[in-house]
Amino acid sequence: MPSPWVANLSLYGIALLIFTLMHSVSVLVQYRWIAYTAISIGCCFVVAFLIGTKEPGLNQPSQDKSLSRISWAHWFKKVLYYQVALVYMCTRLVTNVSQAFLAFYVINDLGMHQSSKALVPAIIYVCSLVVSVMLQETRWSGWRLKNYFSAGAMIWILSGIGIVLLPSRMHNFMYVLSITIGAANALMTVTSISMEGVLVGEDLNGCAFVYGSLSFIDKVSCGIALYILESYQGSTKISENQELAYGYSVTRLGLGLVPAVFSLLSAIVAHTMDLPEARRRPLVEPLLA
Prior knowledge:
mainly alpha, Growth Hormone, Chain: A, 73% helix, 0% strand, transmembrane helix, membrane, MFS_2
């Protein structure tokens, strides 16, 4: 489990180092060096994994084949499937859309230092990690899932309002908002994934379709949302007209308003759910052991 955390933090560290040492070159060159460095280090570890890891043999007897296979049509008959899908999709839209516009916001709208493009996302990630670890021993129930998710959504709504209204002269307050955004991301992500587990329940033979279909929905929706927002962002004429009319850039609205709206929608849907009580098995060992 710590491996992805170390990898993500290492990437933020590389980005911070490059932004600090290569501040005189163009942004294109900076991101190119980040990509080159990350790919090179990743390839080295992939080679080390393939060479140094031995695949164990299968010594266990085959599982019981009498278990019936669940048809994918079975899930379309459940109202809870559509509710969980909508909540999970909105959660991924909140995290992915905000992450996509974060670098543009801190540089173009707030006028922060180039290193903030790595420092602010790193703070968000560390705070998400801390909250996720704190939630690992929580005994989830239906009402607790909905309340924790709603709490995360409300924190994101308040953070989104702060992002939209934050003036550039108070750009250091963005570090405080990074903490609240990280906590909100963790609360919403952990609980929405737990809702998927409640939806699946004991129907393990059909869980592949549930997780696969929800993952597909979230990727398509995020792609469409980012395409629409970045098409407005890429048009100088439209961006100038919008800033003149509303006083806010597309980047500011995409980072603050859009995630806040999806957070509100997902919280409303979550409270309409009728989540069955799921039996929770205790962890074999702590998450960070």
